[in-house]
Amino acid sequence: MLKVKYMLVAVLLSMGQISKGQLNNENPFGLVYDHALVKNEAGKVNIQPVKYKVNGLDISANVYTPAAYDGTKKYPAIVIAHPNGGVKEQVSGLYAQDLANNGYITIVADASYQGASAGQPRNVDKPANRIADIQGMADFIMLYPGVDAERIALLGICGGGGYALKVAQGDKRFKAIATLSMFNSGRVRRNGFLDADTATIQTRLAMASEAKAKEVKEGVIQYMGTADPTDEEIAKIPTDLYREGYTYYYRNYAHPNSTFRYTASSLVDLMTFDANTNMELINQPLLMIAGSRADTKYMTEEVFPNAVNARSKELFILDGASHIDTYWRQEYVREAIDKLVDFYQLNIK
Q: What Å distances lie between residue 348 and 176, 298, 337, CA to CA?
């Protein structure tokens, strides 16, 4: 019977129906991604939960240090911004751990009002907050023992990628900028995914404004998005991004702090945001990675040509990958990590 159990587990893992993180739901750090650290050991990559403040709010973050880390030495560092709805224990943590395994000190934090970070009401999702969160990670990590403040780079994943581009336009502490499966949150909230909702922009802005007024007058918080989809609802979603995304976030790599729900009033700010604005201000080296099958690839392809002043730039396509594939499928994660390491080694030696 035990042999049959292990055979079933192996089959489910290979099919992507469960994750290795789920098998070890007692992870002391709450990590749910595959191959996650379960303890700190001398001579290996270690993880340190840390807290600091951004705009007066307590931020929950994880710092990953490379093998044989010595705080008296100097290391390059990478700030990693998580996807919309994600938390530091999911894909951003996976990339943080793998990059630390390549010699970098990395930091990933839950956005303010989200995850384990403070802020009320919960799940506010405003661009100004996300931008401040990324800069807050840089503020913290540049003072961390062993970090070379002149060698800090940035990686943004999905929605974090769009915000990373915006941060890089102004904050030149980041010496190299990379995005993975970039998602331009403002464009999608304004026009709809694949520009399917352009006819309802003013209606949705009016709704968001009404929600904001209700917060002020009555203290009532209205939310958008799905918080607990059924298997049937997930299966019926027509777009790969959301169908595979819901499976990732609510099934195979679920974390209790992760949700697609956000306050309706956030749309007042989200719908006027666009990562593509002022792309010419990026003068750092730029790498943008997207899957060839990703239905979000149009967003990367739109902004990439506009980085006309980037010191160098490259659009790297992961052949065969969808958006969510880049979060967990080993072959695509490995390819992306290899490309990122080459890019960072060249530009923040």
A: 7, 29, 16
At 265, list the tokens. 């009033």
Q: Find the mean pLDDT for residues 245-271.
A: 97
Nearest-angstrom CA–CA distance, 222 and 214? 9
**CA–CA gap between residue 245 and residue 337 (Å, rounded):** 21
pLDDT digits (tens, 9 = 90+) for 118-160: 999 999 999 999 999 999 999 999 999 999 999 999 999 999 9
Burial class for 204, CB neighbours closer than 10 Å (0-12, 13-18, 19+): middle
Q: Tokens standing for 140? A: 């913290």
- Cβ proximity of 66 and 103 under 8 Å: yes
Task: Please state, as a whole number, how many other Cβ atoms lie within 10 Å of the Cβ of residue 155.
Answer: 30
CA distances 303 to 62, 153, 182, Å, are 30, 20, 10
Strand-pairing partners, residue 107, are 63, 79
SS3 of residue 113 by DSSP: coil
Angle, alpha carbons 136-139-142 (nearest 5°): 140
**Residue written as token pair 């695509």:** 332
Which residue is associated with the tokens 């001398």?
42
Alpha carbons 100 and 310: distance in angstroms, whole number: 26
H-type alpha helices, 112-158:
127-141
pLDDT over 50 (residue 17): no
User: Residue 261: what are its φ and ψ, rounded to 5°?
Assistant: -75, 140
> Kind of pairing, strands 286-291 and 262-263?
unpaired
**Side-chain-side CA neighbours of residue 58 (13 Å):** 6
Dihedral sign from CA coordinates of 183, 119, 51, 91: negative
CB burial of residue 147 (10 Å; 0-12, 13-18, 19+): buried
Contact criterion met (CB below 8 Å) for 336 and 318: yes
Q: Specify the DSSP class assigned to residue 59.
A: E
Q: Give the type of residue at 46.
A: N
Residue 79 pairs with which residues in a beta bridge? 107, 154
Give the three-class secondary structure for 279: helix
Note the CATH architecture for domain 2-184+226-260+274-347: 3-Layer(aba) Sandwich (3.40)
